[in-house]
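Quick one:
INPUT:
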């Protein structure tokens, strides 16, 4: 997919007038990791969400980037398959975990984060997913329909602020009765002989940004 999105008219003219959202591929990894370093700093590898992403691949079709008109990577978001506890009958509840979401600091305020979020939600719905969870700022994510209404009986597998565990039901009622600890359920990352550079970039695959 590749969606061209215009930046709103009130954005300063120093910014590129257009950016594109596209699927991430292998050639984007280095730029994505550099962006996450700029946007999040050293603490990005110590989030509880890492436990749900470590050694896993993102959900199919849900690793997205934003590129400027000049071809620079200026935004990233990925979603991951998880089990959002159990339902009232004791069956696993399939869901997605969103994060990391990050925008290059030099492009903040241009609508890139919002565009990535809306695109990711639309793609998740198109692909048949029923719910998305994240750990993030309740005020920011409320604009996309996220709230803590259905997460009161759910928990992350590590330290987190309970009021920041948010969910969006794509299929209404999907999280009714969901309870327990979130667990990873995505496809395992293939094992291979890796260079030090490979290992460094893979470690950073499990990091949080504004979502997390």
């Amino acid at each position: 997919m590749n969606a061209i999105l215009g930046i709103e008219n009130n954005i300063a003219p120093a910014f590129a007038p257009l950016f594109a959202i596209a699927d991430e591929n292998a050639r984007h990894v280095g730029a994505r990791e550099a962006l996450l370093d700029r946007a999040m700093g050293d603490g990005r590898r110590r989030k509880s969400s890492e436990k749900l992403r470590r050694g896993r691949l993102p959900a199919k079709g849900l690793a997205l980037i934003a590129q400027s008109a000049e071809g620079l990577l200026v935004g990233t978001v990925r979603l991951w398959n998880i089990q959002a506890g159990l339902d009232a009958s004791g069956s696993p509840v399939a869901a997605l975990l969103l994060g990391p979401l990050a925008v290059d600091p030099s492009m903040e305020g241009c609508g890139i984060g919002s565009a990535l979020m809306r695109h990711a939600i639309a793609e998740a719905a198109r692909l048949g997913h029923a719910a998305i969870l994240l750990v993030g700022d309740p005020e920011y994510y409320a604009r996309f329909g996220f709230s803590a209404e259905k997460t009161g009986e759910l928990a992350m597998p590590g330290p987190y602020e309970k009021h920041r565990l948010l969910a969006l039901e794509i299929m209404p009622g999907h999280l009714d009765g969901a309870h327990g600890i979130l667990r990873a359920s995505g496809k395992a990352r293939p094992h291979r002989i890796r260079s030090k550079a490979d290992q460094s970039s893979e470690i950073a695959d499990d990091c949080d940004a504004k979502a997390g």
